[in-house]
Amino acid sequence: MNSKLIAPCGMNCGICIGHLRDKNKCLGCRGIDENKPDGCRKCIIKSCPILKENKMLFCSDKCEKFPCTRLKNLDKRYRTNYRMSMLENLENIKKTGIKKFVKSEQKRWKCPKCGELLCVHRDACLKCGEKR
Ligand code: SF4
Ligand code: SF4
Ligand SMILES: [Zn+2]
Fold this sequence. Notes:
mainly alpha; 6 helices; globular; binds zinc ion
């Protein structure tokens, strides 16, 4: 896991099933499009012109619309389905800086049983099956 795997919306691509799977690994939102599912390749947040115009790394940097409806909807979906919040991530990045955030994520998503990274999209550790 590294800071390049943290998407502009606050998603940590390092814990996504698309990135953690063995075959056709997605290299994350900021990576090349190969193996990226359509939803992420055509993501309206990633391609938001405000991000580009202001050379922003994250939506929370200096967007006047932050958090916009698109981002709020994505956050709601993740809070409801996967017990994870992009907006909370962005808040923590703002508070502690990206390096500390990545470190805290490494700790947060480490399987207590085998030490492998857990996946946000799965209820159990991909390696040992321990429940999240
Ligand atoms: S599938 Fe989407 S969320 Fe998952 S790693 Fe790739 S870009 Fe990130
Ligand atoms: S929060 Fe701002 S920069 Fe991010 S997608 Fe919404 S409008 Fe674009
Ligand atoms: Zn495990």
